[in-house]
Structures are given as structure tokens and as C-alpha cells.
């Protein structure tokens, strides 16, 4: 592939400007303020401190840090692809949020012909953005910024439709997004990378390595994600004890997976040393494995155990499953998203189903029907009237049994994986179009193709070479 075919001089400006003009038109025609944002609805009887911004903005801010700093730094682990990891994350995330506000807004926040915008829309859009960034991890270093924007353009609608169908018709419990975020993102990304398979990369690539500096930057991303993950898992849970449990369970799961990751990293390393890739990724597994049951009464011990289980599955996946998928199934999962989001997501879903099957009023009290809203009695049921005396405002449910709700959870898992994989495969074929500036095999994992470099770009390599020479001489 010639160098001229990857020039961004026309492709990127034209594509971005056309997208922005279209999005501007859609915002102008269809987006307005919600009730908490519209000045006309504020009166002398309105208490400003009751505004939803004070409830939702702290979670929005935390998730912003995860999206732009956490993911950005985490993806900068390649020695000569730091710009690409961080900057393409910035570019893709910004567009994905803009686009998701419109697409998700149409399905979830529209009435009277308008999308009503508030901070809660931004939180939902950031979850859609997280889906895109997780999928991005599967093709890191092997795609152009134009391809990534096209991927976001296609993935956000597929995700939004899947989310809407699953929540509206299957009516599941998924507070931490194990099904709709982690599983969807994982199998969409694997579908894309399956189509974009590059046989030569299975033999290894000279630039597919890290440096001391890039590993330090990446682990900084891990720390940002680790610290703010409780906000990610609890942002959309019911306020009060549900949200309180979600924060506790996430922290306990992350702590357990972190300590287990250090132990397993040393044990599975033939030299008995720690591997930075394990610290960067496997330590986060507990945040995913508690997701499906994060607001339920699973007990702190179970949250702890889920962190250990998720970490173990993730570690073994990196060591054994990822190489198998690349060699035998044409799935080159660059960041190991199948391990951190797929395997752990499946464990989380199994734990969530177990928690649903064992949920009883003796444990939850009448608030069980606030958490499992679809198990609440149907309208007209005398039991509903009794519950509403204890919990004013409790809405009628569908009268599902625990077993019925568990079956709907299973249906959601399989339908989400199927929709994601199919959407990813179709998106992969679109990304193979020749005018999207795809890098050649030789220029994968290399910033030189798309960036101007500062004058001191080569200095870390030279310093490393000098240090290695001196150490060798001393030895």
C-alpha cells in the first residue's frame, strides 16, 4: 500500500466536516433542553438544589476522567504508538459522545418530536462511547483515524438499537453494564478484527513492543480507571442503598482482582517476575465481574470472590486464549478485550443470574420490587396495593418469577452477543474499503504514518541503547 493512500489531508477534514455539519443540523432541528435545564420551567417554587445536575454531574465528571484520561493513557502502551493510542482515543470518544446523544436520545429521551437534553443524557452517551473505545482496543494500531470514526459512526446505532430492544422488550437487570456494555463491546470488536485479519502480524511485528515510558503511561491509565470504576458501575443505579451497595461491591471486586493479579503474574512468569501488561489490564477485571449484580444483595464476600474469579479468568485468557484465537480463529485481539470484557462479562452475567434466582423478600424486604422492577405484581394485584403502602410510588411490574427473569437474562446475553458480532463483522467489511487510509502491515503500531514528530522523538531509544551498552560493559 503506497504512502499516498494513507494521507489524511483530504480524507479526514472532509469526513469530519461533513459529519459535524450533519450533526449540527440534527441538533438544531431535534435537540432541546430537558425540564431540569429549561429556564422557562424554573419558578419561585423551584428549589435550585433539587436540580438533577447536583445528583448526576459528579458521576458524569468521574466517567469523563475514565473516558479521556483512563482509556487514553491505557491505550498508549506501544513504544512508538503513544500518540495514536491517546489522540485517536480523544478523537473517537468526542465524536462517539456527540453521535450517541442523538442516537440514544431518539430511543430513550425523545418526546413531542424532540430529544430533551440533560446531564443524564451525557452519562448514557458516555457509556455508548465506552463501548466504542473497548471495541477500539481490538484493532489498536491497525486502523486509521478515518476508520475509527467510521467504526464509531456504525457501532453507536447498532449498540443503541440493541440496548433499546433488550431494555424495552426483554426488560433485564444490568446495572453495571456487563451485558450491554462489556459483552456488546467485546464481541463487536472481535467481529471487526476478524474481518480485518492480517496474517503477517501473527508472526510478530518489530514495533509491537513497549518501553519503560509507555508502560508507565499505560499504568497511569489503569489507575484512573481503577479509582473511578465505582462511579461507572453505580451511576445509573437507584439512588440510596442500591447505589451504596454498587460502590462497595465494585471497590471490593477491584481490590480482590488487583491482589490476585499480582500473585498470578509472578506465578505464571517463568522468571518469577511481575509483567506490566498484567498490572495494566488484569487488575481491572473485578470491576467487570461484579457489574451484573453490583446493586443486588450478593454480600461483600461474593463481591470479593467475583473479583478473584474474574482476575483468574482474565489472566489465563491473556496467557492461553488470546494466542489460540489469533493462530486458529483469525481473531487478533490487540488489547485482549475478550479477556478483560468478554470472559469477565460472562462470569458477571452468571453471577447476576444466580443473584436473581436466589433473591427473596426475606433478604431484600419490600424494596426487592424496586431493584427487580419486573418481578413486582401487576396492576390490580392486591399485593401491589400492600407494597405501595410500604413503598409509595412503587410501579406495577410484570409479575415475573425469579426463574422467568433469569431466562430473560439468558436471552439478553445471547441476543446481545449475536447482534454485536454481526454488527462488528459488517462494520469490518466497511472498514476494508480502500479510501479509508488503512495502514499497511509495515506501518502498524507506528505513529510516523499519521503524525508529525517533535525533534527529540528518537531520544528515548538512543538513551536506552546507551544504557544497555554501559550495563553490558559493566557486566
Summarize the structure.
The chain has 475 residues and is mainly alpha-helical. It is 65% helix and 2% strand.
Per DSSP, what share of the residues sits in E-state strands of 2 or more residues?
A: under 5%
> Span from first to last CA?
45 Å
- Average predicted confidence as pLDDT: 93
| Radius of gyration (Å) | 23 Å
Order of helices and strands: HEHHEEHHHHHHHHHHHHHH
Decide which structural class fits the backbone.
mainly alpha
Shape: globular
Spans of at least 5 consecutive residues with low confidence: 459-475
Main sheet record: 3 strands, mixed
Strands across the major sheet, in which order?
1-3-2
> Residue share in helices?
55-70%
The total count of helices amounts to 17
Count of distinct strands: 3
Can you tell me about this structure?
By secondary structure, the chain is mainly alpha-helical. 65% of the residues lie in helices and 2% in strands. The chain has 17 helices and three strands. A hairpin with a 2-residue loop joins strand 2 and strand 3 (114-117). Helix 6 packs parallel to helix 16, helix 8 crosses helix 11 (300-328) and helix 11 runs antiparallel to helix 12. The radius of gyration is 23 Å and the shape is globular. The two termini are 45 Å apart. The relative contact order is 0.13.
